[in-house]
Amino acid sequence: MNHLLAFALLGVDCLVRAWRIQLAVWTAGGRLSFNDAFRLNLYGEAASQLTPNRLGGEPARFLGIAEARLRPVTALVAIGVEVACEWPVFVIASAALVAYYVPDWRHAAGIWLAHHRAGELVTIEITVLIVLVMVYLLQRLARSGFVRHRVRRQWRVAWAHVRRAPRWALGAGAVLTVVSLAARALILPALAWGMPDAPSFDQMFFGSLALLHAPLVVPLPSGGGGLEVAFLNGFAGDFDARQVTMLVWWRFYTAILLTVLGVFALVRSVGYHAAVQLFKIGWGKRGGPAPSD
Questions:
Q1: Does this model's pTM top 0.85?
Q2: Residue 117: exposed, middle, or buried by beta-carbon count in 10 A (0-12, 13-18, 19+)?
Q3: How far is CA 222 from CA 83, 148, 182, 212, 213, in A?
Q4: Which residues, at least 6 apart from 217, have a Cβ–Cβ distance to it below 8 Å?
C-alpha cells in the first residue's frame, strides 16, 4: 500500500508538470500534446539529475519542445512563462523552510545587524555593485553586436510575451507548481505511513522538501552524495534500522525512476552521442587541441 501511494504521488507530480508546460505553451500561442509534454519533462528530469546544479534541465526540455515542432520563440516564451510561475513558489517554499528550521530567525537577524561592523555590510554592498556592473556589461555586449542580432531579437520577443501572459495563467501555473512540489515531498511520508515510531509528518515533509531542492545549490549532480549523508543522519527523520531502506526507496521514487526513463527516452530520440553531450552541460570544456579544418 505504501509503494502504491508513493507511485501515485509521483504520477500526480508528472501529471501536473505536463499540464503546466502545456499551459505555458498555450500561453505562448502554441499547442503541445500531453505525450510531448510528458516526454520533455522526462528529458529535463534526467538531465537535471546528471548535471551540476541541475543545469542541463532547461536545455533538455527546450530540446523536447523543439521535437514537438514548435518555433524557437514559442519555446523560449513557454519556458519563460513556466519559470515565472515557478520562482515565486520557490521563494515562498524557501521562506517556509527558513521559518521551520530557524524559528528564531528574527532574533538572529537582529543580533547580526547589531554586532556586525560596517565593513562587513560594505562587503554586501560591493557584491550588489558587482552584480549591477555585470548586468551593465552584458547589456553593452548585446548592444555592441557581441551577441547575434537574431538571438537578441528572439529573447526580446520572448520576454515581451512573458510580460503579456494572462495573470490567471501565471496563477494557474503557480498552483500546479505547488501541487507538484507537495506531491513529491509527500512521497517520504507515504513510504513511512503506518510505520511504528515513524518520525513526525512535518519533519519528513519539510526535510524531504529541503533535500529535493538541495541540488540547486550543491555543485554536483543529484546532490553529489550530500543528500544521502544528510538523510542517513536523520535530517528528514530517524527510521532506526530502516534508515538505509527508506533512503533507497525515497531516492528511487524521487530521482532514480524518472532519471532512468528520461535517459532511455532521450537516447532513443536523439541517439547516444547527442545525449552524452547534453549530460556534459556544466562540467566545463575538455582540454586538448582544437580539431583542424
A1: no
A2: exposed
A3: 20, 34, 19, 9, 10
A4: 53
Q: How confident is the prediction for the chain on average, in pLDDT?
A: 80
Is 243 domain-assigned?
yes
**Mean predicted confidence (pLDDT) in 185-204:** 92
- Segment 85-90 shows an average pLDDT of 84
Domain span including residue 10: 2-279
Q: How many Cβ atoms are within 10 Å of 28's Cβ, its own excluded? A: 26
Cα Rg, the chain, nearest whole Å: 21
Query: Is the Cα dihedral 230, 231, 235, 241 positive or negative?
Result: negative
Is 290 a member of any domain?
no
Q: How many domains does the chain have?
A: 1
From the centroid of its chain, how far is CA 117? 36
Over residues 3-56, the pLDDT tens digits come to 999 999 999 999 999 999 999 999 888 899 999 999 999 998 988 888 887 877
CA distances from 152 to 30, 157, 158, 172, 226 (A): 21, 9, 10, 29, 39
Q: For cell 555586449, name the residue.
A: 141
Q: Is the pLDDT of residue 289 over 60?
A: no
pLDDT in tens, 203-220: 999 999 999 988 777 667
Residue 293 lies in a domain: no
Per-residue CA distances from 44 to 48, 66, 93, 239 (Å): 6, 13, 21, 31
Within a domain: 275: yes
Candidates 45, 69, 26, 23; CA nearest to 254 is 45
